[in-house]
Queue: 2 jobs
Job 1
Amino acid sequence: MKTLHMIIDGKEIQAEEGATLLQVARKEGISIPTLCEHHELSPYGACRLCSVEIVKGGRTKVVASCVYPAEEGLVVNTATPRIQKIRVIILELLLASSPKGEVEKLAAEYGADSGKFAKELTFCILCGLCVRYCQEVKGEGALGFIGRGVERQVVYYPHLAKESCLKCDQKCVSLCPTCILPNIFGLAIPAFDKTYPTVYPVRLLDENNLFNLSNTIK
Amino acid sequence: MATANFASVKNGGMDTFGKITEICLKYGGEESYLIQILLEIQNEFNWLPKEAMLRLQDELHVPLPRLYEIATFYKVFSLIPRGRNLIKVCTGTACHVRKAPVLINRVIQLLRIKPGETTDDLRFSLETVGCLGCCALGPVLLINSEYHSNPTTSQLEKLFSECL
Ligand code: SF4
Ligand code: SF4
Ligand code: FES
Ligand code: FES
């Protein structure tokens, strides 16, 4: 494998070809906040919290470090004022929908103002960790996304879950950065603890209402 | 709302499962042609019945949630029954001031369905759309891909009777 030379936060380092900027930074002991990244799952690039600044051909550009591959001669800055500002705004937007769990923790760390944007509590930030864990790691289909844009949401297929969830390690629940997932299950499997009120507009998709899906999606 | 289910689609004389297998085979059972395959299935039935999706999951080895994720992402896919003939009435600004609401009411009275609905015999679906780009003809009604300018009730009756 080829060795690449890069500069991260002013430090000259070597990186392996094929690694993401996030992986390279972590190896150098530089911490970058993430919400939708997990080492067992393929890169997704949904939350943009891991944004960093790169300098290429004399121009600077903001990229998501969890999906951007290491490149020869790249200059990366992980905590410039511009990057800090972007992270604060992302967190403030996320706080409007889910002021809990990991989001709450990071928001406190970055001094994000929870009152900046009007609240629209769904408790899900659509990071896809639960869905991807279920589909990629477990090879199951108990969870999925439906809809697009503001209509996008996680749904739960009870008739598939009946088979898969009981024999599963149920790690999808602990992966959820906003702690809403247990409530989603709570609707169908009472054994799951409900920690927060279920504001999240969960639709349970069973055999009978599968084809009525678009009645509820405009 | 039409309560039509897959059984009535089958009664239309189509060997449904055979058709889906045939469509999948045509694309070599390749997952990368999924959208093309979904479009062809929808062309066949005018919508995506649950049974078709379950069948597709087995044929292509794509998890059901993935199929529904895609089918709910694109506006062209319908997960509720849609009729063989799609009637669209333009409610764009120009058509609106040229009395599109009156035209819609005529259609509603004839077909006894509201916009967004499908007749029980799966013959017609009614939709309203934005500007169709031919405002001078307004109010405009579209039957499948044929344009009609302000048809009267008796003209509509004749046009609908020609739709199979
Ligand atoms: S517990 Fe159920 S939903 Fe969660 S990963 Fe396992 S199979 Fe999927
Ligand atoms: S339920 Fe939790 S893990 Fe799943 S997409 Fe929403 S925030 Fe992410
Ligand atoms: S961690 Fe990179 S976009 Fe979410
Ligand atoms: S508004 Fe109806 S065609 Fe333009």
Note: Residues 188-204, 206-218 of chain A have pLDDT under 50 and may be disordered.
Job 2
Amino acid sequence: MAKTLREVAEKAQAVSLVTVTIDGREVRVPEGVTILEACRMEGIHVPTLCYLEGLSAWGGCRICMVEVEGQPNLVASCVTPVREGMKIWTSSKKVREARKTNLELLLSNHPLDCQLCDRNGSCELQELAYQFGVREIRFQGERKVYEVDQSSPSVKRDPNRCILCGRCVRTCREIQTVCAIDFANRGFDTVISPSLGLPLGESVCVNCGQCILACPTGALSEVSHVEMVWEAINDPEKFVILQTAPAIRVSIGEPFGLPPGTVTTGKMVAAFRRLGFDRVFDTNFAADLTIIEEGHEFIARLKQGGKLPLITSCSPGWIKFMEHFYPELMENVSTCKSPQQMFGAVAKTYYAQKLGIDPKDMVVVSIMPCTAKKFECQRDEMCASGFRDVDFSLTTREAARMLKEKGIDLKEMPEEDFDDPLGISTGAAAVFGATGGVMEAALRSVYEILTGKTLERLDFYSVRGMDGVKEATVDINGMEVHVAVAHGLGNARKVLDQVKAGRSKYHFIEIMACPGGCIGGGGQPIPTNLEIRMKRIEAIYQVDRSLPLRKSHENPAVQRLYEEFLGEPNGERAHHLLHTHYVPRERM
Amino acid sequence: MFYRAHVLVEMTSSSVALGAAQVKEQLEREIARAGLGNEVKVLETGSFGAALPSPFVVVYPDNVIYAPVSVRDVRRIVEEHLLKGRVVRELLFAGERGGGVATFIPPSPLKKEKRVVLRNSGLIDPLNIEEYIARDGYLALAKVLTEMTPEEVIEVVKRSGLQGRGGAGFPTGLKWEFTRKAEGEEKYIVCNADEGEPGTFKDRLILEGDPHSVLEAMAIAGYAVGANQGYIYVRAEYPQSIRHLEVAIAQAKERGLLGERILGTSFSFDVKIRRGAGAYVCGEETALLESIEGKRGEPRVKPPYPPQKGLWGKPTVINNVETLANIPPIILNGPDWFRSIGTPTCPGTKVFTLTGNVNNLGLVEVPMGITLRELVFEIGGGIRGGHGLKLVQTGGPSGGTMTPDLLDVPMAFDTLPRYNSALGSGALTVIDDTHCIVDIVKNFAEFFLHESCGKCTPCRVGGKRIVDILERISAGAGSPEDLEKLRYLGQHMKATAFCGLGQAAPNPLLRCLEFFREEFEVHVREKCCPQGVCTMRPKPQPKKTVRV
Amino acid sequence: MNTPFVYQDIEEILSRYEKEETPLLCILEDIQEKWGYLPRDVLGYVARRLGIPSSTVYGVATFYAFLEVRPVGKYVIRVCKSTPCHVRGATDVLEALKRELGIREGETTKDGKFTLEVTSCLGVCGVAPAMMVNDVTYGNLTEERIREILALYRE
Ligand SMILES: Cc1cc2nc3c(=O)[nH]c(=O)nc-3n(C[C@H](O)[C@H](O)[C@H](O)COP(=O)(O)O)c2cc1C
Ligand code: SF4
Ligand code: SF4
Ligand code: SF4
Ligand code: SF4
Ligand code: FES
Ligand code: FES
Ligand code: FES
């Protein structure tokens, strides 16, 4: 896997430096870095398309070409290491023309209908064409025309807009280790194709949407629920309830120009209220509920010698991954539904009763950072109440688009509160949005429930941050409880293989399909990269710190829900509504 | 058993394509029918060099060559020659018909010929290791293993000045040295027998006619660089080569010339065959490695080069078949002997394959430095049908374009680049002046479009746009700007493509645009094809949607 | 294709390469040799057995010109279109084949006997124009010779 800039910098400490000349300026850079990395370290911009930080370099798009004195051909800076004495020109006439021509060639096999495209405004191809001043396509010729693949519940593939940069393929392979898609055919006929040439919906794709984040163009996007949601909102017969996931409040500002990491909870609530939802609730309420259920499940397994380690279940991408690749660990996975589904199940039973509404007239819409949630809400298992727990699931991007369509500028909104009672939540629920958050929230509650003591230090720093696999040991009543946290399915594999081989010491494992957790989910605003992920994570902990209640079992609304409706945690009704089961799936 | 006569049948892919297998069967049947089964033995042999029409049959020890032979001719050869001892004159090889009895090698049928890599082709039964051994086969390996250190072997190869015959002409000794010096326990020798360059079939004839020479060389290379495993990557189009290699490997192993502890020394070396599956780009060395690794044949990022990181990430030598076939004679005869052949800066011989519109098709091995005129007009017997010469494409579409003004340039790796040309694989495709330059250039471009791996933009899309423009021109819809666009795209592709395929693909286009400017201009200005080849009628483009 | 018998045959092919590193291409070639093409189920089976993602297996199977992922005729005719054959009449050969078989390139005859494809140099340019029928090469093609050759396969 390619180095992140941070690793490059670390390497710089360890290895010797070489002197190169970039655009006439002599600089010293670490030996072994690529020309592109050297340029970026020196603050020199070189455009790229197929290169993406964190993935192996590919060298196919030929946009990052630079001139190296003494070499007859231009070289691709993203795959060429620097050499002592190299003289590099990054914007000579030859270089600029070559880059522009490659853009033109890509565009000559492209629909050129940005107005009809999901990525209009956030497309790297469009942006580069603008920057390079492409005003005509000199090289016209046959264009490939493909069917759009709408078979997946989550990811729409439009090969017509694909520029074959391979970023999706490498993301799926290197970060997620799912390998649902790869190049097929060759030459001008080359395409990105799911397993065995089948539609994506029939493949091992786990719907995580990370490939969408990686895609520079509109070739990959979410399957949209926007029209259905508008229809529900406009239908006077329907009572439309919204829930917003923990990770949305720290990212939805971005499409409106707010810097990454801005907390927008109050403005977000106000904005969605104005969009026409009858109630604006918080998935965080259900996250607290999840902790109660999952915490008790863990305590029960711990006490009664049940299957350990217990593995969290709130990431539907991870769940499908498990069903395909680790069905032997099925019993380790918590039976708890994800917060999205728990919310729906509670809304269409408890809340519908409370309001005296027929659940068939109730529509539950979620706004999620996640594309896998679209798949999850359509799973057969997800209608314990007799109705779909959740009817429609929008990504952050779709939600922002709806606001813009209605002319709502999030920045200008007043601060408002979520509706009662499904809008009340704690800091423990807030941290669900970041990797390690579910674990941290669970530990806060499990500790107190098991020991009966108040936890003094609520912050479990060792499970936070962007390291791929994190671990911690917590002393609970003299027992050492070992926990691990993995985010990104490639990292998850490392932990799961240990469990499978019987070499794991862990009691409790949190797994999130998306790098960084849900703040880096496949439905989040584009761009989503390492830097932005870290800013969103910071914001998540800021939300946690700002809340008066920071432990799930202290959530009064959740307590009331048990008293009035559910009974005991993990009790019969809770089990019926809030838990689910899994199915083994084809492995390849 | 003693046989009074041997009948050698040429068994190569091209001769089989012309019925050699049936000729052999018929010979065996007729010999048995004539009761000669205990006296005369039928053997297979490799190719014999240029100017022999396939399939040919040699009767030994009479040194009589019949060529070409069809199934119908067999009975007469058996009844007249083998039974009654009378040569069948009408069936003799045309070049020798006057003299009556053809002379078997030596002397060779061609005066300019100098056989180093083809030293055994046509002379021995490739399926019988004894015949190879009888002609000093595996002696070089024995010498290397018992008398020389690996460093000495590399030194000899370096001093010989041998340059890779796969097209790029990289010094073989240096490549071996890099690989020897690279860190790593495991190393590999890979023989590139993908031979996809149109017009090239020399490697096939070496493998079919003398497979042991390549195996021996691979073992020597293995000893020199410290590798114990070799792979031969043979294209799927060459089933006959694969068959001969399989037999040769088995025989060599049986005699302890491959496998564990070769010739009782501590050196072990094994060779395995890997088959291609129809992809020209897999001739590019790193794409070839990808293919052996069971992946799509997409070229790798270089550096690292194969001597540092090759097959499965291990240091690897990749050499062409012809390069390797030079190794045993160099070891036996010494570097100075090799340097005495060819030119001072480009020693040795080169196998050329004559294809296209020449009178004599086939291959010939001659010293480096020979001129195109000698090759085409003396050895090749001139242009077919008395037509004029338009151009000779050397080294296949990715090589060089030699126009009639360059006929006297000496052919070598270092000379041709001075004329924006390249020796490449040694393919010579002669094109006569009845052909249209737009059509020819389009044919080259279509080849690259068909063979592009699709990884990089300039080759995948640029290559397609070049074909699109050429199609437009040949359909009478071209404009003068299209010529400038072609030139621009060609240069762009050269400068920005990822691998050698895309970088070399525009070579013929660029050269022809210059040299045949007028002919191109007539196409776009007057919408007319002087040779009457282009249709000059636009064809409708069907639109279809594909599901992927 | 789902009969256990077929999978036994695939197992037999897989067992040939047990000791080989990265034998995917070899296995696909052998399977193709036996069944003429690579059925989707078989590709999936091979992927599972080798522990290679099926998307990767499909990518390999569609990269190489000699591997087919769609059913083809009993005999695949590959006509060489490279320059040495082109300048000796490869276009006429292709046209003659199209006429004789009544199909265009890339198509298969209705009786499932012949598939017509164009290919790059077969390495027998000494007898150009040339073609391959499955793994047998034919050279010095004329319209008459094409008819003779087709007759061999038609019976
Ligand atoms: C597109 C392309 C195709 C090639 N095809 C062949 C080939 O068919 N046979 C070959 O020996 N070398 C071929 N080469 C050259 C090889 O990459 C490599 O240089 C060669 O095998 C090295 O062997 P040598 O040093 O003995 O020549 C090809 C190169 C390119 C770029
Ligand atoms: S992918 Fe980008 S360039 Fe292409 S149509 Fe969409 S927005 Fe425009
Ligand atoms: S959604 Fe996830 S699993 Fe599916 S193709 Fe994209 S990256 Fe792979
Ligand atoms: S789908 Fe997107 S990420 Fe994947 S290759 Fe195409 S343009 Fe690149
Ligand atoms: S130039 Fe590019 S597309 Fe063409 S064969 Fe090489 S890597 Fe593939
Ligand atoms: S960014 Fe370097 S080649 Fe694509
Ligand atoms: S799994 Fe989809 S956002 Fe976390
Ligand atoms: S060009 Fe047709 S066989 Fe070589």
Note: Chain C has seven helices and four strands.
